[in-house]
Design brief:
alpha+beta; eight-stranded mixed beta sheet; repeat; Bac_ResReg_Asp_Phosphatase
Length: 675
């Protein structure tokens, strides 16, 4: 009896916490530990039996937040909240739960309203608490609320919470962050001197903390200030200094932003040298790697301007249209208006009035709306005046012409007023000239001033919420083969190792005859969906084939090919009937030589058809047909020759080109087949 009682007691103690309102231990949240290696943490946590602890589910959700696993993160944070209520966890911990929930909504779901709602729930738990840990959490919570209200353009509320964050700051690091955020907000509202006062405090604290990574962040803002004041030389110097700083401190997202800012100044000054192009290509490549749709759109927008300066209108229009597509998908009205406006202006210069008018009608710019940027408003009015004149609506043309003149004058007056206000208030940044000379040259810190309208919009989107991620095939899809070819030709300027991959259904002609051309194309598009690899830099569908342009070194190509084939194999199972696939991968520069031209790519397609034909003869079964062409002799064929197919057969017989089917060399069998 005694032994049975002890056993019953042990069982009760073991299961008791699941039913008790009193927690057995204080929940612990370890975000710093998880940030060090979220994948490893998640893997280890999921291998263990799930304990009856709210902290377990919170940490699981936090790791998934860092890994962008949004559905799992939301499910697990809800599980943690429900368990915390059941166990009556302490208020500070419950506040951390809702703070994490807000981050999930903000970063992964781009839902600012639900994020703010969760932050307010966290605040209800924290407000009564006054201990040191609670104050630290309050500081971070107020900062998140300020960031969230910034997303909603509610600057008054954003400043209110940023000031509360500063009031709760106990550590210099927290105080520095709060000053920096307040500086951004005041610049957003054109309160230049208040902004610079906070930036000065940011720099002072950064020096004390030896947090030199903060210097380029401030430099970037000073550059925007110079740009707004119409001082391009100073702006360019500031942006280049910021770019160097971000490179040194390995801040890639900020580095991308600085590259784009440098290019924007140079393009404004009609620079069209190769260095500007190189900056934009680097920004585009890094943006693809980070899945950063906004920066991809910006990069393509500026590349369109660069090609426009080069008088290459077809490429310029193509990049503009890609930027429009992405800006539409991520719902970025500001960027969308800028791209559509410059595209409409360009079309008007080319006397394509109907297309210009169609784009003009899509603009959401209101010349009388003072909340919109002046430069957009006066350029909109100028465009409206020209279109009205084309339609011989002289009354409207005169009206918009007068309005454009008035708005342009207002823009110049605003620049002058910003400079004047700054000079009257002195130069708050001057005291920091010598604190870190490698990053703070006095020439531009003493004279810096401006608004941060553009930059805050950009950084706001980078900071509190992540934008919708787009798969590369959405971003780089070319509607025509010629566009695809020209883009790959342009990519070789960056000295990138380029590969071409062709994918189609095995027996695609029979498939098309039986099911129709529309269903075949839909099948190819289905294969393309979610093909989210950063190495894929160009995509098109042509001649019943899915063509992928890849940026990948030769030694890494087998691994990339296996990843792509694995994805394609999974995707094809969703098709009815389930088809077999045939693919071919080949190195572009080795096959075509450098530099190659678009017409060389046209001829190269013969190598694809021939390889598939030969492999089909040697392997008539219904299996998947995965092939590779390897080049042992650079440029083994004269691609513009009339009898290119015979040249290819000769190269295969001589061994200067090798055709492989997975691990099997087909050249010996090809010789027998031809003979």
């Amino acid at each position: 009896m005694h032994a049975a009682f002890i056993l019953l007691l042990l069982l009760f103690l073991s299961y008791g916490p699941a039913f008790s309102a009193t927690p057995s231990a204080t929940p612990e949240f370890r975000p710093s530990l998880i940030r060090q290696a979220p994948e490893q943490f998640l893997e280890q946590a999921m291998q263990q039996p799930a304990p009856n602890s709210s902290s377990y589910w919170l940490e699981l959700a936090y790791a998934q937040l860092l890994l962008n696993q949004r559905e799992s993160a939301l499910v697990n944070i809800e599980q943690a909240i429900a368990l915390a209520v059941l166990l009556d966890d302490q208020p500070l911990f419950q506040a951390q739960l809702y703070h994490t929930k807000a981050e999930i909504y903000g970063r992964l779901y781009r839902n600012t309203e639900l994020g703010i709602e969760a932050l307010q729930q966290a605040l209800q738990w924290l407000e009564p608490l006054q201990d040191e840990r609670a104050r630290k959490e309050k500081n971070e919570l107020y900062e998140s609320l300020a960031q969230a209200h910034l997303q909603n353009s509610d600057y008054a509320q954003a400043i209110f919470y940023a000031e509360k964050s500063l009031a709760e700051a106990m550590l210099p690091q927290q105080e520095m962050n709060a000053h920096f955020l307040l500086g951004r907000l005041h610049l957003q509202m054109n309160r230049i001197n208040q902004a610079f006062s906070h930036f000065q405090s940011t720099l002072t604290l950064a020096t004390q903390l030896e947090a030199y990574h903060a210097y380029p962040l401030v430099q970037l803002r000073y550059g925007i200030g110079y740009q707004k004041m119409g001082l391009p030389e100073q702006a360019l110097q500031a942006f280049l200094q910021a770019k160097e700083g971000f490179s040194n401190y390995q801040r890639e997202r900020a580095y991308i932003n600085s590259l784009l800012r440098v290019a924007s100044v140079q393009l404004d000054q009609n620079w069209q040298d190769e260095q500007t192009y190189a900056y934009l290509q680097e920004a585009l490549q890094l943006s693809h790697q980070h899945g950063d749709a906004y920066s991809i759109a910006e990069s393509k927008f500026y590349l369109g301007q660069w090609y426009q300066l080069q008088q290459q209108q077809a490429l310029a229009y193509d990049y503009f249209e890609q930027a429009v597509s992405i800006a539409t998908q991520i719902n970025s009205h500001s960027l969308l208006n800028q791209v559509q406006l410059i595209l409409a202006e360009s079309l008007l210069q080319q006397q394509e009035f109907e297309r210009a008018k169609s784009l003009f009608q899509q603009l959401t710019i209101e010349p009388e709306d003072h909340s919109q940027a002046l430069f957009l408003r006066y350029r909109y009015a100028e465009l409206a005046a020209e279109l009205a004149a084309w339609q011989q609506d002289w009354q409207q043309a005169f009206h918009y012409s007068q309005l454009a003149r008035a708005l342009r004058f207002d823009d110049l007056r605003e620049q002058y007023q910003l400079k004047l206000d700054y000079l009257h208030q002195g130069t708050p940044a001057a005291a920091m000239v010598d604190s870190h000379p490698a990053f703070l040259p006095s020439y531009w810190l003493i004279t810096v001033t401006a608004t941060l309208l553009l930059l805050v919009v950009v950084l706001g989107r980078f900071g509190w919420q992540h934008r919708q991620r787009l798969t590369p095939n959405q971003l780089i899809f070319s509607r025509q083969w010629i566009q695809f070819s020209e883009k790959l030709v342009a990519e070789q300027r960056q000295k990138l190792p380029l590969q071409l991959m062709a994918v189609t259904l095995r027996g695609c002609q029979q498939y098309k005859q039986r099911h129709g051309e529309v269903q075949l194309r839909q099948a190819l598009i289905s294969l393309l969906q979610s093909l989210n690899f950063p190495e894929i830099i160009q995509v098109t569908i042509h001649s019943d084939v899915l063509w992928l342009g890849l940026n990948c070194p030769d030694d890494q190509l087998p691994a990339l090919e296996q990843k792509v084939l694995l994805h394609l194999g999974q995707q094809r199972k969703a098709l009815k009937p389930i088809p077999q696939l045939q693919t071919l991968v080949l190195p572009l520069q080795a096959m075509l030589g450098e530099p190659f031209k678009a017409q060389h790519l046209q001829a190269l397609r013969e190598a694809v058809w021939l390889s598939w034909y030969l492999a089909e003869q040697l392997n008539p079964s219904d299996d998947n047909l995965y092939l590779q062409l390897k080049v042992l002799e650079q440029r083994p064929c004269e691609w513009m020759a009339e009898n290119i197919r015979q040249d290819l057969l000769n190269a295969l017989q001589l061994g200067s080109i090798e055709l492989w089917q997975q691990q099997r060399l087909l050249n010996p069998s090809i010789k027998e087949l031809i003979e």
